[in-house]
Description:
Structural class: alpha/beta
Amino acid sequence: MTTLLIDDEAPARTIIRQYLADFPQISIVGECADGLSAVEAIRLHQPDLLFLDIQMPGCTGFEVLTQLNCIPRVIFSTAYDQYALSAFEAGAVDYLLKPYDRARFRQAVERVLAQAPAPDAALTRLLQRLEETKLPPSAAVAPTYPARLFVPQGARLIAVPVQDIRWVEAAGDYATLHTRTGQQHLSNLGISQLAQRLDPQKFVRIHRSVLVALDAVRELERDGSGGFYATLEGGRTVRVSRGHADVLRPLLG
């Protein structure tokens, strides 16, 4: 698991770094002292976990999260207790109120680790069995594609109907499924694996890190270099790289 330490106070980041020494399975990929650099670092490193302060220069911790397409697990670390309710409403795993001791820190981190079981071969086989869709026999043997994908949520696996997926974004070795309702689900599978599992007549790869549902594309705008900007259902704009532009030919009149 990778993490970013985001706090405008260097001593606070030092304490987190020291306490994380008890957890060799968590790797620190960067530190930030303000909200704006935090947004850039999160987009660059795509960490699994954030230790996030709230009151910071540039923008608050909450404002950082609103600028992300894919939100990692978050442990807020702050000196202000009045934001706790808002933090949990934003999906925080825990809320560390400064000053906290090593035992309280361990409790928060263990809560994160309990929510993030490492993918293994057995889980992959289970996901494949759950996703199998039985179709009537036909004379021609054609590839079949699942009607739903199962993604981990804590100790459970929940079903995400493929028809609800509007686009898929790479998230390190994993991928984030974005649905028509605005929900996001982190899949154990990488984007290349999902590209093979989803029906290519319905989903196309428009960038090395993005898959889109063809019926979610609402507008295409040429970028002047052989690629496009695609506006999706809901207003999200994603870039279609020049190397992947040909996949959109079925949509061009």
